[in-house]
Design brief:
The protein has 202 residues and is mainly α. It has 10 helices and no strands. Helix 2 packs antiparallel against helix 10 and helix 6 packs parallel to helix 8. The longest helix is centred in the last third of the chain and has 30 residues. The radius of gyration is 19 Å and the shape is globular.
Length: 202
Amino acid sequence: KAVACLYLDAPVVDLGSWPAGFGTGCGIYVAILFGAKRYLELRNTIISTVIVSGVAAVALGGLSILLCGPILDLLQVDPLIRADTAMYFSIIMSGMFFLQMTFFGVYVMNALGIAAFPLYMSILTSLINIGGNLLSVHLGWGIAGIAASTILAAALVSVLYIFKFMQIFRELNARGPYSMKGYFKSALPYAIPSMIQQCVMY
C-alpha cells in the first residue's frame, strides 16, 4: 500500500500512453510547418495523422477487446470484479479513436498557438463525464454507463476538434488536393520517438 501511494508501482512500459506521444510528435511537425507558412502541407499532415492514428486506434482497440480475457488473466483481476472490469475495458477500448483524438486536438492547437479552445474542450469533456457518471449512478447503469459517458464525451469533443480544424484550414487558405505523399517520411520521425518516450516514461 505504501508503494502504491508513492506511485512506485507504475509500469515500466505503458502502451496505453501511445496516443499522447504520437500527438506530441506530430504536433511538433505541425508547429514547424506553421512557422514556415507551408499551410497546405500542414493541412495534409493533420488529416493524415487523424487517418493513421485512427486506423491504429481502431486496430489496437479491437485487438485489446479480443485479448481481454488473457489480459485480465495476466493482471490477475479479482473474480469478484472481473465481469465489470471486462465490460469497462471493452467499452473504453472500443472508443480508443475518440480518446486519441482528444490528445491530438490539444497538441495541434498548442502548435498553432491556440490556447483557449483546448481549455474549453477539456472543461466540456469533464462536465459531460461527470454528468454522465452521476446519471449512470442515478439510473443504475453501473460500470457500462460510466465507461460510455467517457467515450461519449470524447466523441463529442473529437467532432468539435474536427470542425475547428476545418475552420483553421479555411482561415489559412490551405487549399489544394489532399495527399498523404511524404507523410510517413516527414511526420513520423517526430511522432515515433515521442510515442516511445511517452510509453516508457509515463
